[in-house]
Amino acid sequence: MATGRTHRPATRSRGIPEATVARLPLYLRALTALSERSVPTVSSEELAAAAGVNSAKLRKDFSYLGSYGTRGVGYDVEYLVYQISRELGLTQDWPVVIVGIGNLGAALANYGGFASRGFRVAALIDADPAMAGKPVAGIAVQHTDELEHIIESNGVSIGVIATPAGAAQQVCERLVAAGVTSILNFAPTVLTVPDGVDVRKVDLSIELQILAFHEQRKAGEEGGPDSGGPAVAARAAAAVADDRKGPDGDMPAVMPA
Amino acid sequence: MATGRTHRPATRSRGIPEATVARLPLYLRALTALSERSVPTVSSEELAAAAGVNSAKLRKDFSYLGSYGTRGVGYDVEYLVYQISRELGLTQDWPVVIVGIGNLGAALANYGGFASRGFRVAALIDADPAMAGKPVAGIAVQHTDELEHIIESNGVSIGVIATPAGAAQQVCERLVAAGVTSILNFAPTVLTVPDGVDVRKVDLSIELQILAFHEQRKAGEEGGPDSGGPAVAARAAAAVADDRKGPDGDMPAVMPA
DNA sequence: CTCTGTGAACTAGTTCACAGCT
DNA sequence: AGCTGTGAACTAGTTCACAGAG
């Protein structure tokens, strides 16, 4: 990933591990809930439980941000909410465009979690002319032709791609050319981007497949306790036997919508 | 997390690293695309490029499954598709229920990537009586009252939660009590489950927050830092502290018209 | 000679356990 | 006392680099 050479071995203070960054939103969510209940302080143990991690990890994570706790007491909820928000860049407003207003795009447009975290849906964009002008989540959908203009005039730097897989790369290129430098990709395809552009992907079917893997393992476990290890040879042989069948006539691509 | 269980150092053959499992669906997708184009074999280099990883990692990943390649040549596409499918448990049929048919639930129901990978939507379930009977993606929505009955009579072991956050834990408990042992959670909340139940979560706003973090860093590189004073806690807390809403917006638009 | 498969070296991430502040 | 903050030990994951199959 873009992590390639961003390596700055220098300044220790700005070296927050990626794994920690990925957990900050989790802590923020837990802290927000506490804040709403007007809880003034929280210990690493309590907060860790609320966020679903262990407390040593949480303390270590916070230690990368600075020393924001009070020994013997815990963390001040409001203060920590502020610090994490600032670290994540949520104290500023991020205009976002969503491209591809199918089922998923509409769900995203309606998703409350965006707006409440400093993200503002600046525009909804779809290639279907019939969609143009239709309101989704209170915003009129605009045609793809407007893409560059929207990005530039709103200073959008974050784009969300919720198009079919076949359109994603092209949309991505237009977004990047227009100035977008961070992309959240829901299309089940690998996007190629120039250096300096970040891509994160969310693939719904991948998550299910990972679950299926573990589920299958559970099921196998009951049949025979620790059935032997030489399974590999046997499996390989069996597989070769039924080798080249057209496994599934099943299907075309993996496209959303 | 469910990772709690002790690693069995024994039988190497069954010790596929979690990171590798998470990439298998990616390889499978790339291979499926090649298969459709009737490409017979592929090298680790080519396949790695298509999947967006580096080739050493890919070879190492495959080495955990067995020796399915041919030195000097590469991998047989069809054979590898079969091996990975089987490893992931996709050669069997997984009935899945989706609970919470809002925008997101509907998007999931319509998502082609599920059906094409051995997942079958056995039922759509919603708590709103007004939804009952309405067809979504060609399937009539059923009321939550039917949940236990549906799970049991269809032998469902995988459940997808797309309800608002407030309902998620309760739905989760009912799913688990009825026999579900793998859950894909889209609600922005931490689910507590008994041992032996797997949970994977997808949080749309977390991904955006991670992007914002990196985006901020890029911007900060050039101009002056916003160097927020430590005292400004109130503003940030107000900005961040609000909803606790579901993934789909029951919430109307957050945007001023 | 080409490309896989894999030990070995390295890097990132997690957990432990305790010093030290309040 | 109680709890944070953190070096040190450990574990998981990645990359290197090359032996060896075809």
From TrEMBL, chains A, B:
<comment type="function">
    <text>Modulates transcription in response to changes in cellular NADH/NAD(+) redox state.</text>
</comment>
<dbReference type="InterPro" id="IPR036390">
    <property type="entry name" value="WH_DNA-bd_sf"/>
</dbReference>
<dbReference type="InterPro" id="IPR022876">
    <property type="entry name" value="Tscrpt_rep_Rex"/>
</dbReference>
<feature type="compositionally biased region" description="Low complexity">
    <location>
        <begin position="231"/>
        <end position="240"/>
    </location>
</feature>
<dbReference type="Pfam" id="PF02629">
    <property type="entry name" value="CoA_binding"/>
</dbReference>
<keyword id="KW-0805">Transcription regulation</keyword>
<keyword id="KW-0804">Transcription</keyword>
<keyword id="KW-0520">NAD</keyword>
<dbReference type="InterPro" id="IPR009718">
    <property type="entry name" value="Rex_DNA-bd_C_dom"/>
</dbReference>
<dbReference type="InterPro" id="IPR036388">
    <property type="entry name" value="WH-like_DNA-bd_sf"/>
</dbReference>
<feature type="binding site">
    <location>
        <begin position="100"/>
        <end position="105"/>
    </location>
    <ligand>
        <name>NAD(+)</name>
    </ligand>
</feature>
<feature type="domain" description="CoA-binding">
    <location>
        <begin position="89"/>
        <end position="190"/>
    </location>
</feature>
<dbReference type="Pfam" id="PF06971">
    <property type="entry name" value="Put_DNA-bind_N"/>
</dbReference>
<dbReference type="InterPro" id="IPR036291">
    <property type="entry name" value="NAD(P)-bd_dom_sf"/>
</dbReference>
<keyword id="KW-0238">DNA-binding</keyword>
<dbReference type="InterPro" id="IPR003781">
    <property type="entry name" value="CoA-bd"/>
</dbReference>
<dbReference type="InterPro" id="IPR058236">
    <property type="entry name" value="Rex_actinobacterial-type"/>
</dbReference>
<feature type="region of interest" description="Disordered">
    <location>
        <begin position="217"/>
        <end position="257"/>
    </location>
</feature>
<comment type="subunit">
    <text>Homodimer.</text>
</comment>
<keyword id="KW-0963">Cytoplasm</keyword>
<comment type="similarity">
    <text>Belongs to the transcriptional regulatory Rex family.</text>
</comment>
<keyword id="KW-0678">Repressor</keyword>
<feature type="DNA-binding region" description="H-T-H motif">
    <location>
        <begin position="26"/>
        <end position="65"/>
    </location>
</feature>
<protein>
    <recommendedName>
        <fullName>Redox-sensing transcriptional repressor Rex</fullName>
    </recommendedName>
</protein>
